[in-house]
Amino acid sequence: MHPRPSTRKIVLGRLAIIVTIVAWFLYLLTTIFRQFIEGPQSNFRFTVEAISYVLVVTFLTFSALMYLVARQGALNRFRDHTRVPRGQLDRHFDNYDKAITVLIPSYAEEPAIVRYTMWSAALQEFPSLNVVLLIDDNPNPTDPTTLERLNETRALADEIVDTLAEPAAHFRAGYEQWLADRPRSTTPEHAETVAGYYREAAEWLETMAEREAITDHVAEFFATQVLMNLASDLRLNLLALNAAVELGESPDAERISELYRRLVWIFTASAFTFERKRYASLSQEANKAMNLNSYISLMGGSYNIEHTAGGDILVEHDERNPEPAELTFPDTEYLLTLDADSQLLRDYCIRLVYLLEQPENENVAVTQTPYSSFRGAPTRIERIAGATTDLQHILHQGMTYYGATFWVGANAVIRKRALLDIAETQTVGGFVINTYIQDRTVIEDTESSVDLGTHGWTLVNYPERLSYSATPPDFGSLIVQRRRWANGGLIIMPKLLQQIRARRRTDDRMRMGERLLRVNYLMSIAWASFGLLFLLFYPYDSRLLSPLVFIAALPYFLAMGSDLRDCGHRFSDIFRIYGFNLVLLPVNLAGVFKSFQQALTSEKIPFARTPKVSDRTASPAWFVLMPVLIVAFSLLTLWRDATIGHWGNAAFAAFNAVLATWAIYSYIGVKNSVVDFVLGIENWLYVDAKPKPSAQNGDITVEGVAATPAVQWESILYHGDRRLNRDLRRTSDRRRRLTKTSK
């Protein structure tokens, strides 16, 4: 749980908001308005500079203000949050008949990382839990290394089921024996018996943790926070039961039944894999959303596999057919989407589902705990990226306070009924494709949040840290992640404006706080990137500068430093994060421009997976060169402003040059920068030669004529004539009569 904030911290947070607003207003009054009223006659250039500078300062101050507002909402939630007692949870799930399906989309992930994720899901306490690994790799790779990794990933589900089979059967047998012999009144012997089962469960988890190979901080987190944390919780129950036995007492029969059920639920889970790319009848779009949508569309149905020339397709099973269906997909009330590089702590499922089933939350479609970063990252860039992730956790918690929750995507518990409300259906190539989670942008969770709001659903963040996710270990993989995050907000913005207009005509009007936070969430990367670009590269008139701009930004940095310290980081990380954002400026701009491109072309952008591999990911040459240019131009600005006495601009340029230089050295590396730049130039200059087609077995050959492919009769009969009349004008048309001439 989050520590309860003090009254002093809450009051200081409110003062920070007031200081930011007052400083911005005074800047406009004492600097901008004064220059136009009392200053020398202004020319066109100064007027344009003043307007653009005010816009930049206003947008940046607005984003800082939204940080403080969201943070204040988070502090209020942490202060008011009271955890539901364990006994209340057990009573709520007594005679429970609903189930949950955990969907883990995976693409080219390391099997060890996926294993941690699947185990953290399989050990969740829930009456009926299905874990499904959605593998999106090419099902028939030609590379031996890739095939070996894929087979290891495919084997994970069976490994988990086989490992859990023995303890699950043991605890289920104990529970059934208790139900068969259940007395009207309990004795200390009954408490001692169930205590023995809890001891065995804790020892089983501790043994598994001891056998784990601790190769990195992610493996250590799995062993200590997932396995040992659950074992410690079971040992706490063991302590209570032993204390009752020593006092000659025992919990009542109903409570002992709940204790038995808990062990059965923890160690019972089904797990299997599904690969949509094996079936031509499912969407082949290269993104995570359609990987999830493909499986969700099959839930509750039974199918047979039909082999065609176009590939295997899934055909609905005819109920009149006495033969059983080849594939059956169970339907469940709830879905849990979980990224393949994330891990869940104990009680995640049971507490979030309990939240959804409270009467006041009947319109909540999605609940989640915004993920935090794994502790103990070995690299500077991973640690700072993790620090920004922890800050985002706080901001998302605060956005819920104002009703402005966005679906983060790494983990969430979802009502399937809500997804059915926003579903869209289209026919592609003769196959019906259902879309529940929109794949129009690569931030599919954000767009789906707006869709759910338009249909009357809401979203809620559970105010605890129960989920953790990996952060990019190097600059190359960070580029992939942050460029993806920067792409899509501009495209989703019209949908949000449409929702705002629609809700004006209802009793559920969008409040100002929610409206401002949502707009900032979608647009801040765009305007902050362009604003910082102008501040770095345009020589604004020194008359526009004022200490009030610094005072307006100061509460933001002080609050961020306080939040970093509360999350286990250093207060001084505010400077490292600033340098971090400087080197990411071209990455964010690239994502924004990609949004413009997508808006103009209406093309979908393939989902770019964030690499989480042991080897370093090479960075594109452009993104390595741009931070160096930022440093060079900052030094040039420093020299120019120092020579003409513009000391405010000179100080800002020096600050940027120092922090950007440190960021390049710490996060990218001088050697890595040179290697990636040279590699990027080489890849641009040289292109691999395409292999020449070679004759295959069964090809029809004519003496003196190159081999041509054999007629694929199955493909022709299945697809039909796809060439229309285009090839009728070609002498090489394969449908012409083949003749053999001899001299």
Could you give a quick summary of the protein structure above?
The chain contains 24 helices and 17 strands. It is α/β, with parallel strands linked by helices.
Low-confidence stretches: 695-706
Distance between the termini: 90 Å
Q: Enumerate how many helices there are, as a single number.
A: 24
Structural class: alpha/beta
Main sheet attributes: strand count, strand direction, barrel closure: 7 strands, mixed
Mean pLDDT comes to 89
Helix content: 55-70%
Can you lay out the helices and strands and say which pair or pack?
Blueprint: H1 7-37, H2 44-80, H3 86-92, E1 100-106, H4 111-122, E2 129-135, H5 144-154, H6 156-181, H7 188-211, H8 217-246, H9 253-267, E3 270-274, H10 288-298, E4 302-308, E5 311-316, E6 327-328, E7 334-338, E8 342-344, H11 348-356, E9 364-368, E10 372-373, H12 380-401, E11 411-415, H13 416-421, E12 424-428, E13 431-435, H14 444-454, E14 458-461, E15 467-469, H15 475-485, H16 489-504, H17 512-537, H18 547-566, H19 573-583, H20 585-601, H21 621-644, H22 647-668, H23 670-685, E16 700-702, E17 705-708, H24 713-719
Parallel strand pairs: 1-2, 1-7, 2-3, 9-14, 10-15
Antiparallel strand pairs: 4-5, 4-6, 7-11, 8-15, 9-11, 12-13, 16-17
Helix pairs in contact: 1-2, 1-18, 2-12, 2-17, 2-18, 4-5, 6-9, 7-8, 7-9, 12-19, 14-16, 15-20, 16-17, 17-20, 19-22, 21-22, 21-23
